[in-house]
């Protein structure tokens, strides 16, 4: 893989093509990057969660290689941020039948980016669950998924690494992300905490890494604006410092 351009890119003034920008992380990313002065196109099969972002949205499915290529070629992006994915955990499914969008869809994104001369950096979103909880990988290519979803993302990472892209690429592995536009937290987690129904698992501290979504999208911005030698061909876990889940939940309980 080539090292890419020696200069440092900036979010401001860049043209950024986002797949899956209508989702939880994508909505927050589009908001931040727009405020930083980027020109964005959100290519997503779903309507934006935030109606104010409708003007930046084009309905499209990454499983449709032709539409994806056409949209990317027309937009002429400097940066591609690939967030589109199926992210739930369905152990009755298979990667091929249930999570094809994470593998075949990614292959389509890589092909479109490879064919777009303007693209100078590609960022692909994976997950921390390419390794099962408690597993300490020997390196970034050491996978041990415990779910079909995690297996699909491990395959996705292998695709990115093996594609031979001419531009620098970066893989990000978000931790347990929460914050604005996360509908499940609103419906489930906050409701459980506010009703005093949270039960802590045992007496020992349970340490877990969470990530406030506003911090996570700022971390993505920092990756873009870093020296290419520090981010090309690298994997980054995104999130906040590890915390005791009891303290984390208790802090929200007091606020609610």
Overview features:
two-stranded parallel ribbon; 9 helices; alpha/beta; seven-stranded parallel β-sheet; disordered N terminus; 256 residues; Rossmann fold
What is the fold's blueprint, element by element?
Layout: E1 15-19, H1 24-35, E2 39-44, E3 57-59, H2 65-75, E4 79-82, H3 95-98, H4 100-114, E5 121-125, H5 148-162, E6 169-174, E7 176-178, H6 183-194, E8 207-208, E9 210-212, H7 213-224, H8 228-231, E10 234-238, E11 243-244, H9 245-255
Parallel strand pairs: 1-2, 1-4, 2-3, 4-5, 5-6, 6-10, 7-9
Antiparallel strand pairs: 8-11
Helix pairs in contact: 1-7, 2-4, 4-5
Brief characterization of the structure:
The protein has helices spanning 24-35, 65-75, 95-98, 100-114, 148-162, 183-194, 213-224, 228-231, 245-255, and strands at 15-19, 39-44, 57-59, 79-82, 121-125, 169-174, 176-178, 207-208, 210-212, 234-238, 243-244.
What does the model show?
α4 (100-114) runs parallel beside α5 (148-162). β1, α1 (24-35) and β2 (39-44) form a beta-alpha-beta unit. The protein has a seven-stranded parallel β-sheet, with helices on both faces. Strands 7-9 form a two-stranded parallel ribbon. A two-stranded antiparallel ribbon has the order 8-11. The protein is globular, with a radius of gyration of 18 Å. 38% of the residues lie in helices and 17% in strands. The chain has a single domain (15-178, 210-240), classed as NAD(P)-binding Rossmann-like Domain (Rossmann fold), CATH 3.40.50. With 256 residues, the chain is of the alpha/beta class. The longest helix has 15 residues, at 100-114. Residues 1-6 have low confidence and may be disordered. The protein is built from nine helices and eleven strands. The chain has helices at residues 24-35, 65-75, 95-98, 100-114, 148-162, 183-194, 213-224, 228-231, 245-255; strands at 15-19, 39-44, 57-59, 79-82, 121-125, 169-174, 176-178, 207-208, 210-212, 234-238, 243-244.
